[in-house]
Amino acid sequence: MKRNLAYVLLLMLVAVASCSFTNKTFENDDKDKLLLDLITYVLEKGHYEPKALNDEFSVNVFEDFIDVIDPTKRYFMASDIAEFEKYKYQIDDEIKNTDITFFNVVYERLMQRMGDAKDIYKEVLETPFNYADNESISIKYEEEPFAANRDELKERWRKQLKYATLGTYDSKIVHMENKDIESTDEHDHEAHSLEEAELDSRQSTEATLDEFFDFVDDLERKDWFVQYINTIVDEFDPHTFYFAPEEKEKFDTSMSGKFEGIGARLQKKSEGAKIVEIISGGPVWRDQRLEVGDEIIKVGQNGEEPINIVGMRLDDAIKLIKGAQGTIVDLTVRKVDGSLDVVSLTRDVVELEESYAKSANIIKGQEKFGIINLPKFYVDFNDYNERNAATDVAKEVERLKEEGMEGLILDLRDNGGGSLKTVVEMAGLFIKDGPIVQVRSKGDGKEVYDDKDERIQWDGPLVILVNELSASASEILAAAMQDYKRAIVIGSKQTFGKGTVQNVIPLNNMLRNNDHGDLGAIKITTQKFYRINGGSTQLEGVKSDIIVPDRYSYIDLGERDQSNPLGWDKITPADYKSWGGYIDYEKTIADSKRRMEASQQIKLIEENAKWLKAEQDETEISLNFETYKEEKEKDKEQSDYFKRLTDYDSKLTFKSLGYEEQLFTKDSVLREKRDRWHKNLAKDVYVEEAVNVLEDLKLNTIKQGKLASVKN
């Protein structure tokens, strides 16, 4: 039976928030304890796969909370951890009894150790660093033990600060050796000797730490308690998350369609904040110097001394990075290839216009194909008919058909998902009717969501492009088209692997009376979705029909690299029939494989991917300046070598559609965006191979006498 997805989700949310949770009264004068009680109850009753609160759960919370607040192990000592150990198997009991003793003990000790750290880093930075010493530092902090005493802790700080200062020292030496080249940084004061360069570098590092600890001093106890709550919540799965009131407001703002910042989504890593998504049209996207995988390690404000964010909470780092439109932020970045760079960006209002579907004509000789890029499955939940991904893609398909399209590429690379309803409608553009996805809620049987509309918007050759960052709704669409044998899926070995659905529940709705103000909200995993063949996309993602290597082929990305992901499983398949079309999988894949084996660009991409993996696996870093320079030069040579990847020319021509050409006369920014997109597409070997596959599919169509037609 066809379902109204938005209505079903709304009913489920109301049921979760209103019915299931009305049989318990929440009253507590302590706001922290009330919050803990509310959240754990919601998780128990509403989460798709609630965790048992037992000793194993307790140990995980214990270890993860310590790692969250001291990831580089430069605050706590081994004696502190030994003292905390008595709570290691009691946290589950504390949660059940609404007790926060463990948090209080750890928090009070952390405040003490951070006070000690201020003295330690001052002592360390009083003594010059000897860059001639042959010593190294391991940045695989999770494998390092906690310091046994203050001397060991001070030595850890010394190595970490020497490592943090090494890049600054190098830049000052380079500046000193190139005095004839005017500095582009007015705050990078010129050093006249090695001694001065070393002193200036230490002073710069000290200033950065002073600012960092000033920032930490402004944090309140409630900020640290939120970290503790989210450590508990994160044990359930990586997409369940507690929003404090301020963060809930930011979440609502992001859902509304615009925000002020740099236009990048970040993930916490021990070495800084990793860029995991670049928002089209934003400052990072326009600047083009940053890419997914780069790690931000320092943040400065318009030329001021930057603050080191290594070890900082992600939320706090984001507060430094975000800011008002028109202000400048200076980001010190460790690139994917290991090199360091400082990128200054002007913050802007990030419009989601570039998150909407866009299309282009692809000209190859006398043939014309179409490409539609869909960055996300967007929808206005307040007014579905206002604008949504399915309707927009349908419009673009129609426009491309009018201009003579002979085959279609749907580009879902980097598409992190979105509205489930739009997936069902969009899949229906390419098949007559039938099931698209299966959804299962906690303790319930499955629900099958069908396309009931027998109209087909496009029944010609279809290729879907995916990569490791294609997730959720993207995986539903790709999986459905693959199961129907309606399209050829080209891309990475597998997609992201997120097969779960979340809902946001405001916690104030749980209380009849509330004297504590806004309590925020919890985003909770409530459902799992499955392919029509019965298999889950969770962890395994969608495996491409034609696998094309990319620079992330050997780097762990996706759901399997997240903390505490739900497992893979399968259910009974839906009732569906394969597309009775023209796809000869074996021959299409064989022909594609033969082309890729002969492609020098593909070989270079594969070589680059292996080098990036080797660089990422290098966790022992030399603190000897000469060795550092040698490694830096080698990395630069390799980085320059792989820049040839951007010189590739597929010889394909890309042109905007007629309606956009008319818009360009009034919108020069849109013209610039499309020109840049077309330029990048012409260098894209994956799009080139997709066109080759479309040609094969077109030939098969003609051979089988099934010319593409349109049913209106």
TrEMBL record:
- Superkingdom of this entry's organism? Bacteria
Q: GO molecular-function annotation terms?
A: endopeptidase activity; serine-type peptidase activity
InterPro entries from the UniProt entry: ClpP/crotonase-like_dom_sf (IPR029045), PDZ (IPR001478), PDZ_sf (IPR036034), Peptidase_S41A (IPR004447), Tail-specific_protease (IPR005151), Tail_Prtase_C (IPR020992), TSP_N (IPR040573)
Q: Where is the signal peptide?
A: 1-17
Which Gene3D superfamilies does this entry report, sorted A to Z? 2-enoyl-CoA Hydratase, Chain A, domain 1 (3.90.226.10), 2.30.42.10
Ranges where the PDZ domain occurs:
248-336
Note down the stretches annotated as region Disordered.
181-201
Q: Name one GO biological process term.
A: signal transduction
Pfam family, any one: PDZ
* Entry keywords, A to Z: Hydrolase, Protease, Serine protease, Signal
List, alphabetically, the GO terms of the cellular component aspect: outer membrane-bounded periplasmic space
Carries keyword Hydrolase?
A: yes
Matching entries from NCBIfam families are given as:
prc
Q: Of which family is this protein a member?
A: Belongs to the peptidase S41A family.
Q: What protein does this entry describe?
A: Tail-specific protease
Q: Which organism is it from?
A: Maribacter hydrothermalis
